[in-house]
Each structure stands twice: as structure tokens, then as C-alpha cells.
Amino acid sequence: MGAYEETHHRSLEDAEGFWLDAAAAIDWTRPPTRALDDSRAPLMRWFPDGELNTSYNALDRHVEAGRGGRTALIHDSPVTGTVRRFSYAELRDEVARFAGGLRSLGVSKGDRVVVYMPMVPEAVIAMLACARIGAVHSVVFGGFAPKELAARVDDAEPVVIVTASCGIEPTRVVEYRPIVEEALELATHQPDQVIVLQRDTARAELGGRYLDWAELSVGAEPVGPVPVAATDPLYVLYTSGTTGKPKGVVRDNGGHAVALAWSMAAVYDIGPGDVWWTASDVGWVVGHSYIVYAPLLIGATTVLYEGKPVGTPDAGAFWRVIGEHRVKALFTAPTALRAIKRVDPEAAELKKYDLSSLRTLFMAGERLDPETYHWAHGHLGTPVIDHWWQTETGWPVAANLRGLEPMPVKPGSATVPVPGWDVRILGQDGAELPAGQEGVIAIRLPLPPGALPTLWGDDERFVAAYLSRYDGYYLTGDSGYRDADGYLFVMGRTDDVINVAGHRLSTGAMEAVLAAHPAVAECAVIGVYDQLKGQLPRGLVVLKAGAGIGEDDLRQELVAAVRREIGPVAAFRSVSVVDALPKTRSGKILRKTMRGIAEGRDEPVPSTIEDPTVLDALRPVLRPE
Ligand SMILES: CCC(=O)SCCNC(=O)CCNC(=O)[C@H](O)C(C)(C)COP(=O)(O)OP(=O)(O)OC[C@H]1O[C@@H](n2cnc3c(N)ncnc32)[C@H](O)[C@@H]1OP(=O)(O)O
Q1: Does position 625 have pLDDT exceeding 70, yes or no?
Q2: Separate counts of helices (H) and strands (E) for the chain
Q3: 233 lines ligand 1 (CB under 6 A)
Q4: Residue 586 to residues 109, 520, 590, 597, 618: CA-CA distances in angstroms?
Q5: Three-state secondary structure of 318-354
Q6: Buried-most residue among 9, 182, 276, 403 (CB within 10 A)?
Q7: What is the pLDDT at residue 113?
């Protein structure tokens, strides 16, 4: 048996021993004596008697070990033209002070803090400060609109919101205070205070419950890390489900720290002192796990990039950052590479920089198409490693484990299940499918440490959404197959969730916005293949009789409504007015069939269709010649 096979086998056959061994990489205030607690199965918890502090593990312990001068974080911000470096000691001090500021406002263990910020170091500081005092952060991506922020505020019920005066997009400045204000007008729950980081690009007016970050921090008494139970929540991160209501994915402290530390060495081959760059956003799980927690837990240097792959200022931006900071591995989404490739197909920019530090390029967030794989591999000459995981899983489920046993790359495949994950391909009846046959991707319970233990305040929804379809399995919502070598190929979602530029979005939420327009009788939103963003949402609406609005006006209003209610990140720009939507006899809209036609596939017409002529009439709309 090779190292991979042996490790994977042990992780499943002796999960208790495997994860207790891995737990030794973390400093505990009370070391765990047990790994898995399945006494409330299917709800499970890891390290039930362990106690630790995640911020201590990410910061203090490196300082105490004499490595306080090592760089913890590099903030590279082409949108402001600045680069800021924080050593471990400096970052710890900033975090301790801001934690003191939060405490002075009455924030304590178990309280929630919503963080709605751009890619600034203070976002990381706010997250780690929450972890330090046992508060639970809930970071909301800056590209979401007030209504989405309000939904998260109402679910998480934060005591405090932390925000900034603005975010800086290449073509506009996004002022956050009006967004937060509007969200709080829409929300039922009201936080006591809103802490605002003032940025010179656009300063916010403060007063009332809007406090200045700088004033709060300067006067604050630094606080030390508070021990919390391994099973206590570290954060809640909302992700799109099939309905409009986002799911609050809970992450615990102990399992999270153990799994992430383990993954840095085994999956990414990154160790203390290495420079690691995840080009994503702290608002996504990739940002939580691999911009903030994992690199700091192991004492590496993390790059926090406030810019885009192109336009800040050019298509050489990523290569500049790698060269300038001597990045050993970059982790980004395929959309970012496609954006660079579109502007600079011959990768001329790449030749301007010294990329000799770069060992590996990791890709996730959406399917890595073989064309983009070959482009990146051809120009960089380094291994380009696709891997697959989800907000819910918190860390990679399938990967090519560069630190454990590198394997040959097969373009289009995420390679093999990572130790800890018992991945199975199931048919509709729950029976396991043989190699080569596509089915639903399910994971046999227990999920390893670091995976979600539940949804925030809603065990029932957690079980109903993920654990009830196949007894003893977690349903990923993705479909795929394994080939004869055991390589996993993830093909796409089995539900109505779509992936736009690596952002997971609910078509149901967009349909709710369209349906609310007074002229719309019914509607559907489908995700259709797009060369740049992977998928783009496409709306189809049927008008009410006598709606009295021109089609162009309606289209504009609907596009504006989705941007206003969900946010620019939805990239909703295409909507067609149609006479009818194709349905089954029981009234289910045939979204999958429409998507197949729109993408040019020879889509079989379901025998249950109510009226085939509706579909025939739609064909030229879905796929114009
Ligand atoms: C493995 C587990 C997971 O899957 S976790 C999720 C992983 N996904 C990712 O990391 C996301 C990867 N994608 C990206 O980073 C971006 O899409 C990249 C590739 C950089 C392109 O960015 P951009 O050019 O802004 O396009 P986009 O489609 O992301 O944005 C659409 C519109 O939204 C806006 N937007 C974006 N971010 C913000 C923000 N933080 N605050 C405010 N607005 C934001 C963009 O400006 C854009 O707006 P507009 O429509 O052009 O006016």
C-alpha cells in the first residue's frame, strides 16, 4: 500500500486513533481524550472533552515559540496602491486589542458578530478577535445586497456588526454604511453597535450606534485568549440552498483547527514559514479556511489580496504578487484564470515576473475545465491541481495530496478522496454504482473533523437537507463518477444551485425576486454554461394578462431588481419573456430540460411533459441559431 492508500484506510478504519494523533498538532488548554462523539447520531461532534482557543493557536503560540517576528500576513492591495505586512506578534497585538474593543461593547462568549468587510487586514483581525473571546463570527461577502445581509442578520442575531466605510471595486467605490443601514431597516433583529473601519477612499459619517474602529481599538485593553469547548461554534457562514433562505453552516473550534492544520501539510504541502496565497474573498469558505485560519494555524505567511485577476491594473497582477512575495503555492478559482487568459491568451505578462518560487497552483470553487487546465499548466510549468470541496465540508473532500503522495493529474478530475472522507457514488435507489457510472456523490458518515456539525439553530433542517435522503450518508448535492483508478470526476449540481464565477447562488432566490414583480405571472431561472464565469443565470418570465409594460422596460426592471435584492455577484443580466414554461403533468417546471437545450445538448423530452409544444416554442429562445 502506498502512503495515500494506507492513510486513507486508517482514517476510516481507525478514525478515533487517526484524528487523536492529528490533534497533537494543536495546542489545547485541555487535550481531548476522545475523538468522535456519536451519541446523538446522525448529529456528531469531534473532540467532545477538548478545550482550546483558535486565535491562540493561530497567533500566540507562534509568538511564544520565538517566531513572533515572522510575517503572518501580507496585505497586497493594488486598488489602494499599498502593501502592508504584519508579523505574528503585530497581528496578535492587533487582534488582542480589537478583542478588547469588542469586549468593552459587551460582546462575550457565544455572542454573534457579523463581519461585512472588503479584503482588508481588519477583516482578518475581526475574525480572530471573535475567536479570541469565544464570540461567533459570521462573515458576509461584500457583493451581497442589503436584503441578503438582512436575512443573515436575522438568522445569526449578532450583537455587533463590523464593517468598513467602503470597498473598492475596479470601476466603483462601494460605500458600506448605506448598505448596512438599509439592511438594518429590513431586518427584524437589531445589533447594538456597528463598528466602522474608516478608509480614506470614502469615509463614512459616524454617530449613534455607528462607532469608529480606530477609536475603539486605541482605547481598548488587550485581552487574552479564552478557552472554549472544541465543540463550541467558531463561526457561521451562510451558503445558498435550493430555497431563498440561506443555510447557516456552523464550524466548530476543535475539529476545524485539527483538520485545517492536517490539510496544509498533507494536501497542500505547505509548512511553517512558507508563503501561501489564496486569491479568494474572506466572505467565502475558501477565504475562511485558506486565507485566514489554516495558514496561520501552521505558522505560514498568508497573502490577503485586495484586487482582481485583471484590471488592477492588468492581466499580470497575479504573476506580480507571486513574484514580489515569493509565493510557494497559489489557490484560486478557474474563473480567475479564464479572466486572465481572455485578456492575455499567450500569457505575455507572465514572462515579466520571476515565478521561480511557485511550486503548485491549486484550483477549486467550480469545475476546472480541461482547456483552462492545459493553458495554466502549459504557461506555468508547475503542477495544476484541481480539488473539490464545499462550504459545508470546510476543507478538501477530493484532492491530489501533494504533501502525502502526489499522484498523476487527470484533467477534469479532482483526483481521489482525501483521508477522512468516505466518498461513494450512489444511484437513485441508494445502491453504490460501479466505476464509470455517474450518480450522486454521497459521503458515508461520520464526516471528519472540520465538516459542519449542523446548521445554525436548525438541527432539523441540517438532517432534512443533508442526512435524510440516504440513511448513513451526507448528500453533497453534486453528481459525478469514479473511474477505474478511483479518480473522482465531479460533474455538477443535482439541485437548483448554480455556480457563477465560483460563487454558489440559488436560482430559487432569483426566481423569488422575478416573481415579486407585479407584471410576472410565473418564471424560472436556470444556470447556463458561460465561457468566462462557468455558468450564468438566465431568467424566463411569463407575463400576466394585460401587464401593460414593454418587454425592454420589464427586462431592465428585473435585472435591476435582482442586483438590488441579491447583489451584483448574481451577475443576472439575461431575461426573456416567453408565452409559457414547460412543465410536467404535476406542474414541475422542466428546468433541467431547458438548461440542456440552452447548452446545445440533445436533451430527451421527459415522458411526463404536459404540453410538448411549449418546449418546441422555447427552443429558439433558449438557443438562438
Ligand atoms: C471550495 C469551496 C468554495 O467553492 S468557496 C467559493 C470559492 N469561490 C471563490 O473563491 C470565488 C472566485 N471568484 C472570484 O474571486 C471573482 O469572481 C473573480 C474571478 C476575481 C472575478 O471578480 P469580478 O470581476 O469582481 O467578477 P464577479 O463575478 O466576482 O463579480 C460580479 C459583480 O460583483 C461585484 N463584486 C464582486 N465582489 C464584490 C465585493 N466584495 N463587494 C462589492 N461588489 C463586489 C463586481 O464588482 C461585479 O460587479 P459589476 O456587475 O461588474 O458591477
Answers
A1: no
A2: 20, 31
A3: no
A4: 50, 21, 11, 21, 20
A5: HHHHHHHHCCCEEEECHHHHHHHHHHCCCCCHHHHCC
A6: 276
A7: 98
Q: Tens digit of pLDDT for each residue in 83-134?
A: 999 999 999 999 999 999 999 999 999 999 999 999 999 999 999 999 999 9
Rg (alpha carbons) of the chain, rounded to whole number: 24
Mapped onto helix, strand or coil, the DSSP state of residue 267 is coil
**CB of 543 shorter than 6 A to ligand 1:** no
Residues in the chain: 625
Q: Which residues contact 60 (CB under 8 A, 6 or more apart)?
A: 92, 225
Q: Answer whether 95's CB lies under 8 Å from 324's CB.
A: no
Q: Tell which residue, 424, 401, 403, 400, has the closest CA to residue 414.
A: 400
**296-317 average pLDDT score:** 98
Determine if residue 429 is left, alpha or beta; phi over 0 gives left, psi from -120 to 50 gives alpha, anything else beta: alpha
What separation in Å is there between the alpha carbon of 525 and the centre of ligand 1? 20
Cα dihedral: 266, 267, 268, 272 (round 10): -30
Choosing from 284, 569, 573, 574 the residue with most ligand 1 atoms within 8 A of its CB, the one to mutate for a pocket test is: 569
> Model confidence over 544-578: pLDDT tens digits?
998 889 999 999 999 999 999 999 999 999 999 99
What distance in Å separates the CA atoms of residue 118 and residue 169, rounded to the nearest whole number? Answer: 10
Residue nearest to atom 3 of ligand 1 (CA): 365
What confidence tens digit (pLDDT) does each residue in 446-489 have? 999 999 999 999 999 999 999 999 999 999 999 999 999 999 99
CA distance 534 to 561: 23
Please indicate, yes or no, whether the overall pTM of this predicted structure exceeds 0.80.
Answer: yes
What is the distance in A from the centroid of ligand 1 to the CA of 569? 6
Q: Which band of pLDDT confidence, cut at 50, 70 and 90, is reported for residue 212? A: very high
- Residue 244 pLDDT > 70, yes or no? no
Q: Please state, in angstroms and rounded to a whole number, the distance separating the CA atoms of residues 73 and 328.
A: 14
This complex has an ipTM of 0.97
Tens of pLDDT, residues 140-152: 999 999 999 999 9
